[in-house]
Write a structure and sequence with these properties.
By secondary structure, this protein is mostly helical. The chain has 23 helices and 7 strands. Keywords: Cell membrane, Membrane, Transmembrane, Transmembrane helix, Transport.
């Protein structure tokens, strides 16, 4: 929480956050006021067709994303983003000033035109919104920053929707005056916040060209040629597809299933928006400054399970329920809980994907990747409208069937993501389980290099060491493990997925030892981190055994930095040899305090077995003495790559 508050106080983030949040609030006040005016005033007074006008309004809002997103990406890449944000806030102020005048004069046709202008401003602002963050916040703060932006956006959408309803309920000239004043004042506040945004210089040079169709095709083609980014963009667009489907059909669900009125719609929307905000913050908390793509399939599974439960709710009576009556119904609160969980799943799902696009995109083309994302989002939102029209309007599927279909799509997404990100998902699952079983405290986590090959060596206390180490490490670790355990018919699939490296003793299988060393060498040459227990076996008395020569053989082949580490607190546990035989009887301790310390990396040129053993022993003594006096730093937990710890195994070198 302290890091989050520091971020919100930072002059490099807070002004941008409020610029974005105020803009999202204003957009939704205007959009919802317009829809209410058109539906309840313009249609009866002017004889307009309600369905035609609502569809026209939706098209006017989406069309700018298809026309201007690519150009907006070029602008954000080729121009200082601060200047661009300020210019776009001036455009917002001009648009909202005209909107205030049009509302006062009942100029409904002009309001529809201004909706297009608002969509244009949003389409141009979109690429800047996510492209500026990597320039203003550290990489370790990027997940947290994205979480705050996403939470702020959804809460602003909710408050804007509520504000529009409250202002419209006043009626008459008073409502028109307050709506206009709100639009202009909020625009001025957003402009003031934009003026405080620090400079963000252009990341590349090029000639600006507005080529709506060709430009859109070019940015999509550029994203397509970066498969990992393009998959993330499709994943983000699927979230907006599902979100648009839920939000579009919630009023109909409220009418036919909840049997409620406008207040019930607001509560359902609020539950979804609050859920997304909570999910974003939970994601930031679990990630602790690291990109953790393993959360993506987990978030999709939450979306699916909560979605199926939501779709199974029966109608709440046969008559019209007042809001007070609904609040007294446990089933209504169950619906709200389901929508909150759907939102939480969405937050867990979407934040790592946005962060992946920001990190994996080059500085010169990051804004254009965000522009490609906006184009795809717009296309998928149009597809969501067609999906709803076909299923409900043409095929006559019930609302329960429609929401069950959305849950089925979420489940399919979860399965695909689980296959593509199996190791990261396994890793975060292990992390959660380890932290449920132990009170794990970690220090020196920053000593593991952010990039490049490295070896981590640690004392070997229990069969849980590998899980604890792998769950705590900020990068995925490749483990050497005993070959007979690796070949266990029940767990071999797990060890294979984890990327474990099987090894037998040189005396038992000389060729197998050489194959294991070859696999370790290949992993190091690929820039991975390999975890070793140089003792080669579990301690039988709680004291460290002598380090074996395997570490010397590995470093002779591949001289890479070595990070010493030490574990304390697992001796005497169920998985240690404290009683002679591990896993004897039932576990005696739950939530035991376990301490893990990483030392300063040592250059391979100065490493010897003896010096490493001395470093690990010194770390262990330090944490043994330190653990009872003051807490360790909270772990920086999770990582963004495709490997994960191996299972609980005795290892050999």
């Amino acid at each position: 929480m302290r890091n989050a508050l520091n971020l919100m106080r930072s002059r490099f983030f807070a002004p941008f956050f409020w610029t974005q949040a105020l803009g999202a609030f204003n957009d939704n006040v205007f959009k919802n006021v317009l829809l209410l005016l058109v539906t309840f005033v313009a249609v009866p007074r002017l004889g307009w067709d309600a369905g035609l006008i609502n569809n026209l309004a939706a098209a006017l809002f989406i069309l700018p994303y298809l026309l201007f997103s690519a150009w907006g990406g070029q602008l954000a890449d080729y121009r200082d983003k601060r200047r661009l944000i300020i210019a776009l806030k001036w455009l917002e102020l001009a648009t909202m000033s005209c909107a205030a005048l049009a509302i006062w004069l009942d100029a409904y046709a002009l309001l529809l035109g201004l909706l297009f202008m608002m969509g244009t401003q949003s389409a141009l602002f979109g690429p800047v919104k996510y492209a500026i963050l990597p320039q203003h916040v550290q990489r370790t703060e990027l997940v947290q920053a994205n979480a705050w932006v996403e939470m702020g956006t959804f809460l602003a959408i909710l408050l804007g929707t509520l504000g529009a309803g409250i202002l419209m309920a006043l009626g008459g000239s008073q409502a028109r005056l307050l709506i206009g004043a709100t639009l202009v004042i909020v625009s001025l506040c957003g402009l003031g916040a934009a003026l405080l945004v620090p400079p963000a210089p252009a990341q590349s040079r090029g000639q600006l060209k507005w080529q709506p169709l060709r430009g859109s095709w070019q940015v999509l083609s550029s994203a397509w040629h970066t498969p990992r980014i393009f998959r993330a963009l499709i994943g983000i667009s699927m979230f907006w597809f599902l979100g648009a489907c839920y939000l579009t059909q919630l009023p109909l669900w409220t009418s036919h299933v909840v049997r409620g009125q406008a207040g019930a719609v607001t509560m359902l929307l609020a539950a979804f928006a609050v859920g997304v905000g909570l999910g974003s913050l939970i994601c930031a908390r679990l990630s602790a400054g690291r990109l953790e793509v393993g959360l993506v399939p987990i978030g999709a599974f939450v979306l699916a399970l909560a979605g199926f439960d939501f779709a199974a709710h029966p109608a709440l009576g046969t008559g019209i329920n007042t809001l007070a009556e609904l609040v007294a119904m446990p089933r209504f609160w169950w619906m709200l809980l389901d929508l909150t969980l759907i939102g939480i799943g969405g937050g867990l799902y979407i934040i790592p994907l946005y962060t992946l696009v920001q990190i994996r995109s080059s500085d010169e083309h990051r804004a254009r990747m965000i522009a490609a994302n906006n184009i795809l989002n717009a296309l998928f939102m149009v597809l969501s409208a067609a999906f709803g029209a076909v299923l409900i309007g043409v095929l006559g599927i019930s609302l329960h069937g429609f929401f069950a279909a959305l849950a089925g799509i979420s489940l399919l997404m979860a399965l695909v993501c689980a296959v593509l990100q199996a190791r990261p998902m396994m890793r975060i699952s292990i992390f959660v389980l380890v932290h449920m079983w132990y009170r794990l405290r970690i220090r020196g986590i920053e000593n593991i290099p952010d990039e490049g090959a490295a070896i981590v060596v640690c004392n070997h206390v229990s069969f849980m060491d590998a899980l604890v180490m792998g769950g705590a490490s900020p990068r995925p670790l490749r483990f050497l493990m005993d070959k007979p355990i690796y070949e266990s018919p029940w767990l071999n699939w797990f060890f294979r997925m984890a990327g474990a490296i099987p090894v037998a003793s040189e005396r038992r299988d000389p060729k197998g030892m050489r194959r294991a060393l070859d696999l370790v060498s290949k992993a190091l040459q690929n820039g991975e981190v390999v975890m070793l227990f140089p003792e080669g076996r579990l301690t039988r008395d709680g004291h460290m055994n002598e380090f074996r020569r395997g570490i010397d053989l590995i470093l002779k082949r591949d001289p890479v930095p070595v990070v010493p580490a030490a574990l304390s607190g697992l001796w005497g546990s169920w998985s240690s040899r404290y009683d002679g035989v591990p896993f004897k009887g039932m576990p005696r301790r739950f939530r035991a305090r376990v301490c893990l310390s990483f030392g300063t990396p040592v250059a391979s040129e100065t490493v010897t077995r003896e010096s490493l053993q001395a470093s690990v022993a010194a770390l262990k003594t330090s944490i043994d003495n330190h653990a009872s006096n003051k807490p360790f730093k909270a772990p920086a937990m999770l990582a963004d790559t495709d490997n994960v710890t191996a299972g609980p195994a005795q290892t050999r070198d």
